[in-house]
Amino acid sequence: MTEVNVRDIIERLRDATAAAGETITEAPPLRLPEPRPRPWLTPLAAAAAVVLAIAGGVGAYRVVFGERAAPAEGVAPLPRFFAHVAGTDVVVRSSDGGREVGRVAAPSAYEWYAHVAAAGDNRTFFAATEAKDCTARLYRFTVGEDGRVAKPEALPYRPPEGTLVTSLAVSGDGKTVAYGLQSCEPAATTGRITVADTATGRTREWRGDRPVTGLSLSRDGRYLAFREATLLTVFRVRSPRPGSGDPAVTEPEVVSSADVHPVPAEAAPSPEAAFPEPTPSESPEVPATPTPSSAASGPPSPARPGDVAAVPEPAPAESFALPKHPITPDPTDPPIREPYPGVDGLSYPASPVPKPVPTAGSDDVRYVRVPDGRVRVLDTTTEPGDLRRSRMVPLTGPWGDVVCGVTISPDGTRLYAGVGYPPAAARPEAATAGIAEFDASSGEPLRHLTRIDEGLLCLVDGDGGGTRFLVRHGGEYGVVADTGGYRTLATVGAEPRTAAAW
Amino acid sequence: MQAEILDIGSSRGAPEADDAISALYAEHALGLTRLALIMVGDRETAEDVVQEAFLGLHRRYHRLRHPDNALVYLRSAVLNASRSVLRRRRLPSFFARTYEPPVWSAESAAMLGAERRAVLEALHRLPRRQREALVLRYYAELSEEETARVMGVSRGTVKSTTHRALAALGRLLEERDR
Fold first, then answer.
1. C-alpha of A309 from chain center
2. Is residue A182 part of a domain?
3. Which of its termini does chain A have fewer beta carbons within 10 Å around, N or C?
4. How many domains does chain A have?
């Protein structure tokens, strides 16, 4: 039996069993037998209490959370492929074993891939690039049945010059693509979302007062879930350029901050306690009034993955303290670009305390976010313009303060999120971590798809049927099924990129 | 990584057990019923199988060495009960009841299509252990380790059984496709 045959058999098996399973859309309430009358009352009372507790619990669950919506029409077996950004390229891997089956190389030495999204057919992918001159382009490529990647075609529409794509999403039917944009201008603090018709190129735009990230579209492209970046602190780090003779040691300079208050120098925290998790980044969004130094330096350009700069960690500025709120890096929400391995030789351990690290090639500004459970849902059939007209959905539930990746269901009625608590923090009492399902209107939790005992399971993408979820955990990509299991798809060693899709 | 390890608390007091079982049912009844359906073929029996599994868990909850293993227990119970159902159906019995045709039969109201029906029929022609290994691995998406725990066998057995099962399934489908 050849490998191709095995894959085909597994695919057919998954398809058939998933189809059979989805003929059932709900389970009946738990039925327990009536306890027999017995002379000893204590066991009887105990049994009755259990019956009531379980029946009541199930009943309460149904009343409070409602019946789980029936699955979307059609059946979605495990997507055969998934794609992720690796360095400057997009790598396509088989979901069966994680083998690399195709690769889309960066268009040029000056332009590289930063985001990727998949249509529901698991064969059509969209990708967004960044470039050193702060331009972005959108591409579409297809993957054949054997995993072979066709040459990407640049889409006839593109983000305006001077902006970078912060997140990319495509609807399940492949007819709509949405991307978040942020300006490369240091003084800009706003974000915007463009929704484009992939057939006609017609675009509509919504603008908000914060950078946006974590975009996810429903199957028909009507509902768009996204998250807003909360700007906390902006640092300017003078990085030495290779060969420039600049001093290697740089001092971060706070050019602007929010939720950060000056404190006496003696109260300033140590570097480990005061700075954000390293997040190589570019294209800053500096709020408030830029300082002369920021104005003098001009807009920074993106740092190409793989650029090397041996820059020691900067000392903390003395003019600020920890924010009032707990800071927890949210790996899914790099408003600029998330860490990639090997850029500066540093590993990127999850840490509840932020710490800036300069990237190569330019003066950098970076910021961190307070990851919270707030998600916004935009009805893209409404009038374009103000992003604040989107619906705020606060995800609630018994976990810590980390929501790691959010996707919307194909029908737009539910949200799925990786939930947990800070990776390096002690597990809060009663906190849970895993992948959870929420009502997209109220944010109320419906159920946990899977739970993990430690760490954080980050949701990356949902499949076309809304039943299989691409996640990342530690150094691997994995799948969480609607039925609750977790399976490793591929171990990629370093922290996997959020820029992945299937 | 330990998936599916449920946080149902370390205390074994009755309220905690009740809460845990309620939560387990709310979260996993649907998935387990689907799993049972694939094993036994009809919905009514599948629901009975799952109810029985939860009743069994309820009876034995306080004897679980590790409450975290409750879901493994439930999956095992579903497989065991499914086996019993299939065994009973093969025996002529005075008390035999009638069942809905399996979802993969042409008589079923479920609209699965000929291709999927053929795959499910072939799946049910496999030996029991091979069938269970394939369903746990490729429907429930359990790892080899988790599958081994549910089936009560070693990981190596899961691996070899899965390999043989795929080969056998391939042969059956090939025969049909000819």
1. 27
2. yes
3. N
4. 2
Q: Of the candidates A17, A448, A473, which has its C-beta nearest B135's C-beta?
A: A17
Task: Give CA–CA dist B131/A91, Å, rounded.
Answer: 34
Identify the pLDDT of residue B151: 92
What residue of A is the nearest CA neighbor of B163? A6
Residue A51 lies in a domain: yes
- Chain A residues close to B71, C-beta within 8 Å: 484
Among residues A435, A477, A437, A487, the alpha carbon closest in space to that of A456 is found at: A435
Look at B112 and A478 and tell me if their CB atoms are within 8 Å: no
Segments making up each domain of chain B, as ranges:
1-100, 107-178
Residue found under tokens 């293993």: B69
List of chain A residues whose C-beta atoms are within 8 Å of the C-beta of residue B66: none
The model's pLDDT over B123-143, given as tens digits with 9 standing for 90+, comes to 999 999 999 999 999 999 899
B4-50: pLDDT as tens digits = 322 223 333 455 667 778 888 888 899 999 999 999 988 888 998 99
Residue range B1-100 forms a domain whose CATH class is mainly alpha
| Residue A63 CB contacts under 8 Å (≥ 6 apart), including other chains | none
Q: How far apart are the first and last CA of chain B?
A: 43
Flag whether A386 is in a domain: yes
Q: Do B169 and A28 touch (CB under 8 A)?
A: no
Instruction: Provide the domain limits for residue A129.
Output: 81-230+372-501
Mutation for testing the B interface, residue in A3, A5, A12 having most B CBs under 10 Å: A12
Contacts of A55-58 with C-beta under 8 Å, sequence gap 24+, read A55/A29, A55/A30, A57/B18, A57/B19, A57/B22, A57/B23, A57/B25, A57/B26, A58/A29, A58/A30, A58/B22, A58/B25, A58/B26
Q: Considering CB atoms only, which of B6, B22, B33 is closest to A54?
A: B22
Please give the ipTM for the structure prediction: 0.87
Distance, CA of A347 to CA of A334 (rounded, Å): 16
How many angstroms separate the CA of residue A225 from the nearest CA in chain B?
24
Selected residues 37-96 of chain A with any CB under 8 Å from a CB in chain B: 46, 49-50, 53-54, 57-58, 61, 68, 78
Triad A250, A256, A259: Cα angle to 5°:
120
Answer for the pair B125, B135: CB distance below 8 angstroms, yes or no. Answer: no
The answer to whether residue A278 is domain-embedded is no
Q: Which of A173, A176, A179, A68 is nearest to A464 (CA)?
A: A173
According to DSSP, the β-strands at A191-197 and A374-379 are unpaired
Structure tokens at A383: 């009038």
Residue B123: what are its φ and ψ, rounded to 5°? -55, -40
| Secondary structure letter of residue A475 according to DSSP | T
CATH number at residue A152: 2.120.10.30
Of A49, A474, A483, the CB nearest to B34: A483
Å between B161 CA and nearest CA of chain A: 14
Contact A5 B170 (CB under 8 A): yes
Rounded Cα distance, B44 and B98, in Å? 11
Task: Say yes or no to pLDDT of A142 above 50.
Answer: yes
